[in-house]
Design a protein that fits this description.
Length: about 110
């Protein structure tokens, strides 16, 4: 999967950086850096693991933009960032079908 270089999250442009040795250095598959407006993904990730990691980090960025990082404890935030991507991937065919149907009804 080729990732876009940038993504808009609620009006703020975030860079998506794929770093070949990020996981070796940090021990993490990805990271969301709000101060740098960047999402870093380990370049060694492939397939579903890469997809889940990208969505996971996007969720962290979205929570930050919504101000939820101030009201969610870190454990709850991390649990949501783990569970939402899994839900989206498991139900992607239905979600795509719903989105296509909604787009088809637009004038």
């Amino acid at each position: 999967m080729k990732l876009p270089k940038y993504i808009d999250i609620m009006g703020r442009k975030y860079r998506i950086l794929v770093e070949p040795h990020y996981g070796d250095i940090s021990g993490n598959a990805g990271l969301q850096c709000p101060d740098k407006r960047a999402i870093i993904i380990d370049g060694k990730l492939k397939g579903e693991e890469k997809s889940l990691t990208v969505i996971h980090e996007l969720m962290h960025a979205l929570f930050h933009r919504l101000g939820l990082k101030q009201v969610l404890d870190s454990g709850t935030e991390e649990m949501l960032c783990e569970m939402i991507p899994v839900f989206l991937v498991e139900h992607r065919e239905l979600i795509i079908k719903i989105l296509r149907s909604a787009n088809a009804k637009r004038p």
